[in-house]
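subagent[fold] <- orchestrator: predict structure for attached chain, return tokens only, no commentary.
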Amino acid sequence: MQRYDGITFKNVAVQDGLADNQYIKFIKTRNGKLWLCHSKGVSVYNAVSNHFSSVFFYSSNAVMPAIWPVIEDNDVVYFYESDGYIIGINENTFKVVSRNRFPFATNRFELPEEFNTTGSLLNHEVIICFKNSTLIRWDLKRGVATRISELPDKIQINDEEFHALSDSECMFFKGGQLTVINIEKNAFTVLAKNPINPKSLDGVS
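subagent[fold] -> orchestrator:
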């Protein structure tokens, strides 16, 4: 992990409050704090004080994190644990306020490839893609899956490139084509038939 000071990039060393500095997954909350998932758990960086705090311990069996950010909702930051739980941590007190069983567990070596989220909320629900082929609509408040849909074999969602449009539809790229899936109807609509580069679309990648 590196920090850019406006002129150069500088390595951020392992230190008190930051047990690992590689393969970090970030989520920034509305109060300005930066949450970092790493192989030892979760740390929070306060830019005002230039200080790291270790807020949750969850050790991985590999160099990659075994805990993954989901989303923030009502002052709670949610994370997925590879043993099959979604936990909520209060962003002000750093206390765990919820822990609910997720329908699927994973291997602590494979988490980055298996778990993606839309990163947008609809009525306190987020759509999660598990192993590129299962869509789970997860209610953060109740801690339950409200819908689980299996994608057809020929359809897979990769590289975190999918976004919720409504409580039943999400948009993603397949072979460079912009596609919408209706989860309830299990129907697909291709919006852009000519292959495009998803990186060129602001807010999509």
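orchestrator: received. Logging for downstream: The chain has a mean pLDDT of 83. The first strand starts at residue 2 and ends at 4.
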